[in-house]
Specification:
The chain is an all-alpha fold. The protein is built from three helices and no strands. The longest helix has about 35 residues. It is rod-shaped. The termini are far apart.
C-alpha cells in the first residue's frame, strides 16, 4: 500500500512529476534543434567572412547587393517583388 502511495506521489504530485519531465524533454529537443540550426548559420557566416576578406570583387558585389552601395557615376534601381 505504501509503495502504491509512493508511486502515485512521485508520478503525479512531486516537483519532478511525469508531466514536468515530458515538458523538460520536449524543451531540450527544441533547444538541440535550435543549436544545430545556429551552428549551420554560424558556419555559413564564417565562410562568407572568409570569402569577403580574401576577394575584393566579392566584397564589392556584397556591398552593392546588401547595402545598395554604388560608384559615383552609377544609378541604383531597386526592384521589389511582391
Amino acid at each position: 500500500m505504501s509503495l502504491l502511495a509512493f508511486l502515485v506521489w512521485m508520478l503525479l504530485f512531486d516537483r519532478n512529476d511525469i508531466f514536468s519531465q515530458y515538458k523538460h524533454i520536449s524543451e531540450l529537443n527544441t533547444l538541440k534543434e535550435n543549436k544545430a540550426y545556429y551552428k549551420k548559420d554560424i558556419e555559413k557566416i564564417n565562410n562568407d567572412i572568409k570569402e569577403l576578406s580574401t576577394d575584393q570583387n566579392d566584397l564589392e558585389k556584397f556591398a552593392r547587393e546588401k547595402y545598395l552601395m554604388k560608384k559615383d557615376n552609377e544609378d541604383v534601381y531597386v526592384i521589389v517583388r511582391q
